[in-house]
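Exercise 3.2. Students should predict the tertiary structure of the chain below and write it as structure tokens, then compare their answer with the key that follows.

Predict this chain's 3D structure.
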Amino acid sequence: MKINIYIKIIALALLVITGCENDFEEMNKDPFNPTETDLPPVFNSMLASLEREWQPQTQFEYEGSGYACQLTSIYGTSGYLPDNAATDLWNNYYDFMSNSRLFDRLMADYNKDLKLDNMDAQRNIVQAYKTVKMVDIFGDVPYSEAGRAFDGPDYYYPKYDDQKDVYLEMMEMLSTAEAQLVENPGDDYAKYGGYDVLFGDDITKWRKFANSLLLRHALKAVDVEPTLSSYVGDILNGNLPLIEDGEDVKLDPVALNLDIRAPIWAYGGGKVRFSQTLYNAMADDTVETAIFDPRLRLFSEVNSDGSWRPMPLYEPGNETGSPNAENRWENDENAGYYSYSPVNYWMLTGRYFTPELIFTAADVHFLKAEAYAKGVGVGIDMAAAQAEYEAGILSSINYWFTVAKGSRDFADNYAWRDVPVDPTQADIDAMMANPKVAWNDTNALELIYTQRWISHIRQIRQGWNVYRQTQMTPHDDASSFVYNRLVYPTSEHTNNAQNYADQVAKMGSDNEVVKVWWAK
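Answer key:
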């Protein structure tokens, strides 16, 4: 078990927001070696961990969970090991929890004249986000004793906590944090200022994020834990604030001056093509006129022959070329010849303008549609469900066309080439009337889950969650690939041997077949 007792401070670009640079430079002359340890920079380092790790994007997302839920199709494996992905995720979380424990110690001695309610609540929202992510991926994980090496040798080998117990604890943590937040705080409240690179200390946005997370997590597990419906009811009946259109939660490379290179590196290093299952949910055939979902031209590309040819599930050895090679922008010949349609290179290579998504407004619409269609926490209301469903589709379309067009403002090597024209109202009407999209009460949930799954093209883990929760997303049942969870990193076998052995005995086996507690 890796136990980190240091703080990881990210590059200057991530540590500051425009207008706050001077304050930061007073505290940190060198952003990698802080001159003092204080709550704001520690919180900042916790936010830095939100950027997805590189190897998990290739092995865990595109070749594992993405292939399992059929958002991706592969014709081989990259050579990156599942253990590398697990280790990166594990270490990232342990660094985070070490900083969270440090945060608690610093908070105990912080300025007694200032109220810390907001700072503590903001930290807890991020901690719940990170912890539920780990539970969703691995199942049981060390939580209560994670990152507590400062407390002595009793915590050098942290025990595994029951995943359901941790999940429910994080739900309560989110609910308590949201209620604790004070909007428009006065000077008697401590603030993060420029160190809050997610929302710039906008407490309303933090409330929306917390409530949106509660909505997502409650609906994900409510079929096996019906009591979670109370969270949904509190939010929807109480009109609590949620993420709205134009408020997508993301790490924005434009605002933060970031270079988000991992997606193109991950796809370029993997043997991935555009999934036929996904293509079939967005088009009726492989001719241009059969494409009814305008996002398809943003999500994928034609092959080297200029034809739409999505890849069936697993075509071993039947593909060549590298359309997602990092240097394709220099010359298309660098991609070689590829017979299958790739994931759109320009969506992936937008390292200076394509955001790292955390939570989209589209997802909130789809979650609300699900709640109204199922009657979770509210009465069944198919009209409201349809309205939210269609709003989710429009939100996703608008988001991606805005990103694509915005890339042209940079006019650099990575700017999106040949951006498709915005869909007209007639295009939208035709899409909404297509039998694969058109609303009907009988198939409401299947429609909602399908569109939610499509919207997660750049959030593979969320698409995988929808598939595991519902088993109702588009799926080629001829596939025998099973991927219900990621196995624990091998470092646990030796560094936390007894607790790992106890955990394997509890599970029966540490493999990808074992399901997490809420999965169908």
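Discussion points: The chain has one domain: 12-263+350-507. The first strand starts at residue 72 and ends at 74.
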